[in-house]
Structure formats: structure tokens, C-alpha cells
Amino acid sequence: MKIRLIINDQTLSATLEDSIPGREFAAQLPLTLQLEDYAATEKIAQLPRRLSVAGEPEGITPVAGDIAFYAPWGNLAIFHKPFGYSKGLIRLGRIEGGLQTLRTEGPVEARIESD
């Protein structure tokens, strides 16, 4: 499924995985979230509802552009830099194209909607 993230009047295109958590995330759209900096590597925000992770891998090694769900905290994570293997991290999809708008310091408001 194609989605778009609108941040500071810039639109980022992304594709969600065809998985249970990917479909559950898509079912929550549209969302407007306040994305906060985390570890100078990702932007995070709480989701309205937790996603099912049954049958998913125990974790992933995220790369820049990954959209993921961090099951232990129940939050969305959008990576603008690569990071090490993280247990409990489930890939939901991937942003296609530039990530500069995510690399700005401080919180940003993002509108996430189906395309």
C-alpha cells in the first residue's frame, strides 16, 4: 500500500509492507502525529492503538527510510539514519526518496495518509 507523509509542506512517498502490522497501521490512517527526535537517528510518536506483532521477526536492523513499530513502547519510529539491530522493532514500510525534512532538529508535525 502506498502512503504519503506530509511534513512542513513537503510530501514523502512510502510503501507499506503487506503484513498484519502494516495493514493495521494503514487502518489507523489518516493520522496527524507530533514526531519527536530520538537518539539523533529517528523520529518517534505514539500510535492511537498498538499493532499486532504475532508471527513477525523478533527484530530488525533498520536503515534510513524505514518506517517501523517498536513493540515494547508501542510507538512509530521513522529512521533517517541507520541503526543497529533492535529486538522488538518491526518494519512497517519504507520511505522512497529524500529524508532531509526528517533530519531537522526538534519535533515536527506529520500528516500520514493513504495515497
Automatic annotation (TrEMBL):
<dbReference type="InterPro" id="IPR041183">
    <property type="entry name" value="Cyclophilin-like"/>
</dbReference>
<feature type="domain" description="Cyclophilin-like">
    <location>
        <begin position="5"/>
        <end position="113"/>
    </location>
</feature>
<protein>
    <recommendedName>
        <fullName>Cyclophilin-like domain-containing protein</fullName>
    </recommendedName>
</protein>
<dbReference type="InterPro" id="IPR029000">
    <property type="entry name" value="Cyclophilin-like_dom_sf"/>
</dbReference>
<dbReference type="Pfam" id="PF18050">
    <property type="entry name" value="Cyclophil_like2"/>
</dbReference>
